Amino acid sequence: MTLSIIVANTGSDSQALDTTVRSIVMQGCDDVQIVGVGSVDHYDWDEALSGSSLLAMLKLVRRESSDEAVLRDAALRHCQGQYVWMLTAGDALMPYTLPIVMARIGAHPDYDMLECPVSWTDDAGGLSTMTFGSAEYSDLMGYWTGSQAFDHPWLCNKLFRRTVLTSLPVRVDSDDYELSTLFEALSRCHTFATTAEGGMIHPQADTGLEQIDDRRLHYRLQHYISLLEEWKLTEVPTAFYAHTLRHQLEWSLRTRHTPQLPMLRQLGRSDIRQASTDRAHRRLLTRLHHLGMNNLCRYYRIQHRWKKKNR
Q1: Pick from 246, 245, 244, 252: nearest CA to 301
Q2: What is the mean pLDDT of the chain?
C-alpha cells in the first residue's frame, strides 16, 4: 500500500469530517488507506465511501480526545502505507492532488518527505494560497531555508515516510506539538521534496504571530534561535533571520524581556538586499541596521502603542 491518510476528528462536527473524507474519495485513487481517529462513530462512513474501494481498507480508531497529538499517535499504529499524510477534520485535498503526489513518490522512492501547496482562510474570509516550486533538498537546513519552510511549519501539507513517524516519541513537546513534531520528523529525513502541483486547504492555519499564544511564541523563538546558531546563520542577514526577528519583536512587545536573538555580525545594505526578496523582511533588517536590537524592540513597542491608541 502506498499511502495512509489519517483523518483526526476532535469534535462531533460531521460536516467538517465529511469535507475531508469526500475530498479524498473524489481523488479517484485506490491504493489509499483512510484511518479515521477520534469521534468517528457518529459519521456514516458506509455512505461516504459507497462505491469506492477505500471502504474495504478503512480503519476506525475510537479514541475520544480533544488533543490532536493523542489522536495522531493512536492512528499511526494502524497505518499500513509506505507514506502517511496527517489531516484534521475540515482539511480538504484539492482535485487531482493524490494522483500527482503518488506519481511523484512512486518515481522517487528515496523521498522521506514531500510537501504540497497549502491554502487557508485569511482574516478577511478569503482564500490565501502558499505555493512553492518543485525542488529537492538533501539536508534539513537546505530545505528549511531554501523553500522558506519557516513560513509554512505545518504537518498537514506534508507526506512522510511511515517509518519516520513511527520512530517519533509519543509526545514531543506540549508547548508546540505541531512544530516540535515537525522538527523531530524532519530530523529523521534525508531527502526532502516540494511540489508546485496539487495542494490542500487547511482552514485553521495560524499565519499571524498575534494568533499564537505566549507559550508557543516563546517555544518557537527559542527553537529558531537555536537553529540559527547551530547552522551559523548569525553572520549575514537571511530571510530566516528576519522571520525569527519578527518573533523576537512580538515577544519583546508582550514581555519587555531583554532580546535573546543575537545581533548579526554583518549588516550592511548590500547584505540586506541579498537577504530576501520580501520587502517587509528588508525593511525590518534596515531598521535593525540603523537602531540596533534593543532600540528596535523599543521602537516596536512604541509603534504598537501608537497604533492601538489611534484605532
Answers
A1: 252
A2: 90
- For the stretch 168-217, pLDDT in tens is 876 645 678 888 889 999 999 999 999 999 999 998 776 678 878 999 99
Neighbours of 37 (CB within 10 A): 25
* φ, ψ at 187 (rounded to 5°): -65, -15
User: In terms of pTM, does the model score above 0.85?
Assistant: yes
| Cβ contacts of 105-112, under 8 Å, gap ≥ 24 | 105/2, 105/159, 106/2, 108/136, 108/191, 108/193, 110/190, 110/191, 111/161, 111/191, 111/192, 111/193, 112/160, 112/161, 112/164, 112/188, 112/189, 112/190, 112/191, 112/192
Which spans in the chain are helix H? 14-25, 45-48, 68-76, 97-107, 140-146, 162-166, 177-186, 214-230, 239-255, 269-275, 279-291, 293-309
Per-residue confidence (pLDDT) for residue 268, from 0 to 100: 83
Q: What is the dihedral of CA 224, 226, 230, 235, to 10 degrees?
A: 70
Contact 38, 67 (CB under 8 A): no
Joined together, the cell numbers standing for residue 188 give: 529523521
